[in-house]
């Protein structure tokens, strides 16, 4: 293997390590969000880097199970969650 190949391999390994570190570092928030819309209910457990992102992800994922189409999805996501339980 020549010098250029070694330099490229080390660069790629460094980038992968940086991505892995930034993904795994920091405090994570875990939440169970239950949504009810159109007579159906769904609960999802989601992890996020902030409380707001975890809550938004839970609402979005729960609504994906019970709403179809743009209008129904937007209506579901605008509704208040049936329950929100923060997990450790």
Explain what you see.
This protein is of the alpha+beta class and 88 residues long. The protein contains 3 helices and 3 strands, in the order H-E-E-H-H-E. The chain has helices at residues 3-24, 51-66, 70-78; strands spanning 29-37, 40-48, 83-87. It has a 3-stranded antiparallel sheet. A hairpin with a 2-residue loop joins strand 1 and strand 2. It is elongated. The N and C termini lie far apart (48 Å). The model has no long low-confidence stretch (mean pLDDT 91).
What percent of the residues sit in helical stretches (DSSP H or I)? 40-55%
SSE class: alpha+beta
Number of strands: 3
**Gap between N and C termini, in Å?**
48 Å
Largest sheet geometry: 3 strands, antiparallel
Low-confidence stretches: none
C-alpha-based Rg, rounded:
20 Å
| Share in β-strands | 25-35%
* Number of distinct helices: 3
Shape: elongated
Strand order across the largest sheet: 2-1-3
Question: What string gives the helices and strands in order?
Answer: HEEHHE
Query: Could you tell me the mean pLDDT?
Result: 91
């Amino acid at each position: 293997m020549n010098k250029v190949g070694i330099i490229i391999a080390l660069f790629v390994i460094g980038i992968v390590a940086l991505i892995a570190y930034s993904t795994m570092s920091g405090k994570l928030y875990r939440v169970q969000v239950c949504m009810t819309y159109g007579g159906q209910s769904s609960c999802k457990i989601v992890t996020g880097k902030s409380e707001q992102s975890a809550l938004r992800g839970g609402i979005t994922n729960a609504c994906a199970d019970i709403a179809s189409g743009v209008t129904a999805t937007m209506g579901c996501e605008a509704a208040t969650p049936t329950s929100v339980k923060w997990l450790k």
